[in-house]
């Protein structure tokens, strides 16, 4: 599959081919649920003094912004996460502070979830927390990627397998 990226809408269309909207919906639903579970476990005296008390329900737009900023942290290298929001000239990267506050980014990073940890029960599969999203992404790649002659394989010592039961 080939895309001509000429504007922002084209970029978002390309991303949606591999990161479908349902992944964003799962992240929003499960993250908000996890935050509520965590707040409910804390004694009331403690919640007055933690960032959890500041939690505002996350939205689809915010999860997309968060995901975009995470990608940018891999492109723009800084020694500490906090420096992405620095106002000092040498470190300043305006896109971060214009997109989301540092505190909000860190709260989402802290609570980001893709499954209900209470629903797992005694599941022995260590990947149960990401099985739903893993299945969606693998299926998306299978339908969108067409193997071509210019493919390279990297061989590693040992073997690696992912399976969701």
Describe the structure.
The protein has helices spanning 8-18, 21-41, 44-47, 60-75, 94-99, 102-111, 131-144. The longest helix is centred in the first third of the chain and has 21 residues, at 21-41. It has one domain (8-144). With 165 residues, it is mainly alpha-helical. The chain has 7 helices and no strands.
Give the overall silhouette: flat
| Computed structural class | mainly alpha
Unreliable segments of 5+ consecutive residues:
155-163
For this structure, the quaternary state is: single chain
Order of helices and strands: HHHHHHH
**Domains (count):** 1
Q: Please estimate the helix content.
A: 40-55%
**Range of strand content:** under 5%
Question: How would you characterize the largest beta sheet?
Answer: none
Instruction: Kindly report the average pLDDT value.
Output: 78
Kindly, what is the distance between the CA atoms of the first and last residues, rounded to a whole number of angstroms? 30 Å
Kindly provide the radius of gyration, computed on alpha-carbon positions and rounded to a whole number of angstroms. Answer: 19 Å
Number of continuous helical runs: 7
Beta-strand segment tally: 0
